[in-house]
Structure prediction request, 285 residues.
Amino acid sequence: MSVLRVVSGATEDEARRGSVYSGDLLVFEKVPPMAELCAYADALIRAAFETDNPVRAQFELDRDEYLSRVETLQKRFRKDDTAKELFLAALGHVGVDLRRTSWDWLYLRVSPHGDEYAGRRTAKLGFHRDTWSSNVYAQTNWWAPIYPITAGRTVAFYPAYWDEPIENTSRGWDLEEIRAGTSSAPVVPEPAETVDTASELRPVIEPGDLLCFSGAHLHASVPNTTGVARFSVEVRTVDAGDAADGRGAPNVDGEAPRVASGWFRHVEDGATLPEISHVRPGSAV
Ligand SMILES: [Fe+2]
Prediction:
């Protein structure tokens, strides 16, 4: 069973990766470059919504205008070199060996209050494992709130499913078909049976902290009815050595037909991660 572990300072990288592959949720507290990134993102968000109260911006704008500004903001953020440098510095600060690390892209997630402002870019994510779509079992997720969060606006984990399979739609989820626009599958694979939420964990961390977890964890956005939007930033990394050696989290139930190695590029030189072998469900890693 996985545990939530609070960490101060850097950890030895191989030990950290092993801990993540065994299902631990790691909270790195007070990471200076992450605090800087929060301040930097705050300025971008204020400018995007032209407001002094970014977490309440939805109450100042109609839905279409809000969603259009979210889209502009997210596109800007994804290409922002300062944001990338600060996130990379945060990863380096907690001990990630950047020489052997690839990542996908920085994503600024916006989760407004209620359902009314839910759109393609602001809808809450249902129960999923990222590995149902990526098939990369060394995939490690990094997540950080920009503004204070509560148990009512965070990400939830279901650790009882770490080593328990759940029926899901990954078998029919072919990323080539999704890309070609010929798939009728949902954006991400989803459970095909009712999720038992008894083991739910809702980490509440501070702006400046960094949560690190395996992409194989079953997780979901908490439905936000707090009256305050959640802004968070996330990225996914893969350690090239572990990917090549087949080290990673166990695959208990992921059956997507392809491995999305191509999503990940080296953090420094941008080289695509070499192809990773397919880990079949039930195989020990
Ligand atoms: Fe996810």
Remarks:
- The chain is about 25% helix and 15% strand.
